[in-house]
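User: Hello! I'm new to structural biology and keep hearing that structure can be predicted from sequence alone. Could you demonstrate with Beta-galactosidase? Please show me the input and the output so I can see what each looks like.

Assistant: Of course. The first part below is the input, the amino acid sequence of Beta-galactosidase. The second part is the output, the predicted structure written as tokens.
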Amino acid sequence: MHTFEVKEDFLLDGKPFKIMSGAIHYFRIRPQEWYHSLYNLKALGFNTVETYIPWNLHEPQEGTFDFENQLDIQKFVRLAESIGLFVILRPSPYICAEWEFGGLPAWLLNEREMRIRSSDPTFIEKVARYYEELFLQITPLQIEHGGPVIMMQLENEYGSYGEDKEYLLALYDLMIKNKVTVPLFTSDGAWEEAQTAGMLLEKDILSTGNFGSKAQENFTELRGLHQRHGKKWPLMCMEFWDGWFNRWGEEIIRRDPEELAEAVGEVLKLGSINLYMFHGGTNFGFMNGCSARGRKDLPQVTSYDYDALLDEQGNPTEKFFSVQRKIHELFPDIKQSEPLTKTSLEPAKALLKEKVSLFSIAASISQYQHSKYPESMEKLKQNYGYILYRTKEPKRSGEEFYRVIDASDRVHFFLNQTKIATQYRDEIGEKIICKPNEEQNQLDILVENMGRVNYGHKLLADTQRKGIRSGVMSDLHFICEWDQYSIDFSTLDHIDYKQPWIEGTPAFYRYELAVETPADTFIDLHEFGKGVVIINGFNLGRFWNIGPTLSLYVPASVLRKGVNEIVIFETEGEWGSELNFDKQPKYKEIQEG
């Protein structure tokens, strides 16, 4: 059994220990792929793996907890241990991570008077209930119990959000109450203001820095701050950003492998490191996060490739080998190995078998609720995805206008099943001019939640409540009596494809792919507009032809030998009669500016 302490150095069994860690998020990688990624981290020569823990997945509905299959954190940690890796856990309520709402559960938004990430008693009460379940899973994995977990995080980059020390103390008390015994840490930007706001000096909790370059400069500032508070803590970069995430409509971000290796070497000469990310993985389903720039929310793409040392598929990149060489140069006695590399499916095609309009089957694949005024997603107990609002309006003149007031994030407006307008961001709320052709006209409004912000002040903004928040106006009055269909993407096996397909409307397209031996592949979606892909009941995530990604990664574990069913929900009316599967992802060149 080992011991681990934080003194003037990190001490493993009483001896100085340099933490060489890489981030692998178990929830972004299928369980069948965990071993591959963890093995490659060890092969790099590193000794530790770090992972966040997302509250929104582990408590998807208030009071309902899930720690199975992809969310089996115990299995992931024990697998890391079997490979010879120690583990750093980051179980804070908020994780950022470019993850939907920073890992906070969407159902928190129904507590309109509650302040998240604060000492608000209601918020602390909800965290406490979650922690009671979570720490039953992870406290037995601590090093003093013979497990591999050496440290846990208190809160994540809180110094870039708040300075509520009562909140940090409440989290500390909850962790101690739930039998956490390993050293705790905070992680913030390395500059003084962020560190001071995010530290918890009263409990002697280690503060670490997050940065992606200039280690000498950042560590000098961090050490100076420690010394001014009378601390002689070891230096650690808890997030060394070796790449970056990507947003829809923006250029792919890349970093030179040799430059990265030199920058990693600079960190390791001075302290310890956690590479963020070692393997990025995928924002499956509706779990992509969203940045905030001024008034605009900027959703991130499904791929979390991150230009990391392993690509989205988990295979080593040039960065892996550059950093591996640097590790050998600095620490020639560290054991390194050849990394594992996966094979890919040979190029293949899937043919369209059936198609049907959403308008023809909405009632059979949705949770239905009626209300006088349209309700937000959260009030309708829908956290993610799409919601269809429907009402009837009499014809009053040859030309009329409507406005969707206060909605997020993207709106399709239909009159009698003909698309009249698509609105996004600042366009929402503008006049929609219609020419009604019936005495009673059907209005359909499809609203997509494109992902909640994961960082900054807009966590508190009302725009994180999705769907239609205020209502829909005809002329100058709000329209009443709405049917609301919360689309359930977990029950698509009930789709009745015998119902009509209507050109130009949101629709479901079913394809079949024959596979002899399942292997990783990428589904090419450049002919399609926008939507999501479901393979054999598993939600791969979103696609959008504005790029920069024009494909989705398909792990081998999603496929099966024989016939595979691919269902595409597409909202723009752009589709193809066949799907191509390739060995490499497909990108769109984005012209900046």
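User: So the tokens describe the shape?

Assistant: Right, they're a compact way of writing down the 3D structure. Reading them back into a model, for example: The chain has three domains: 4-330, 348-356+495-582, 366-487.
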